[in-house]
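Consortium newsletter contribution from the modelling node. Members have asked for a concrete example of what our holo predictions look like. Here is one, prepared for the magnesium ion complex that several groups have been discussing at recent meetings.
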Amino acid sequence: MLEIRSLRKTYGGQGRQVEALGDITLTVDDGQFVCVVGPSGCGKTTLLRCVGGLLTPTSGEVEVGGKPVTGPPDGLAIVFQEYGRSLFPWLRVAENIELPLKSKGIPRASRQQIVAESLAAVDLADAGRAYPWQLSGGMQQRVAIARAIAFQPKVMLMDEPFAAVDAQTRADLEDLVRTVWKRFGMTMLFVTHDIDEAVYLGERVVVLSSSPTRVLESLDIDLPADRDQLKTRSDARFVELRTHVYAQIQQAKGAGPHSAITTAS
Ligand code: ADP
Ligand code: MG
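And here is the predicted structure:
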């Protein structure tokens, strides 16, 4: 469903060159939930923007559903980190969700049904008439997820979507994303700097080095599909996997030319 081959991205201009992506090769099967984890500034957002057709790679190829990406592909939705900036404050919640459906040419009656179903899927059935700024951060991010679901994407890209919410809300949203993924069966590429989050959510975790970024490892997460915030996170296998990923990143950090790693996004 997703094919990334020898992807490189160098930002240029005014004499300063930043090699954000060194050489990324990655395949994601139809319906798979893959988390990409890497230190802050290693190029995670750059990677998603290239996959989403929002940024042209310096070299290499990206294919979604077998088609080369030259612009935003059909059937692909992105949920960004800054929910505050991704929803239109002058539109009500329902209108925010409906907008991309309008441009897709879906008739009014089905639009309204899809909006209602999407809001229900994120437990916000009553929030349709509210404005985004009347909602908490976690609720706004649920609206952004509802908007992505409404689009019925085959592929969903998520860029550190929970970095700005509190820990309890974050746990709820993680479970929501797993539920939505199971129910709608889309292919999920979820980017985070949080190792525990990556291991908790993914069927596979792709570990990135710091820049110039490469894939350090692609690790199958052999935890039961039914994940639980308390049980899964205290599972011996979970601890083993997250410790392994942590060690990988630490090692890369020591070896790489840029050793700065922070926990901030
Ligand atoms: P991450 O999402 O992993 O934190 P980014 O993809 O945002 O990393 O950035 C990767 C690197 O590319 C960073 O060094 C960042 O400063 C640089 N970068 C990102 N966007 C631009 C841009 N538009 N112009 C120049 N450099 C950029
Ligand atoms: Mg980022």
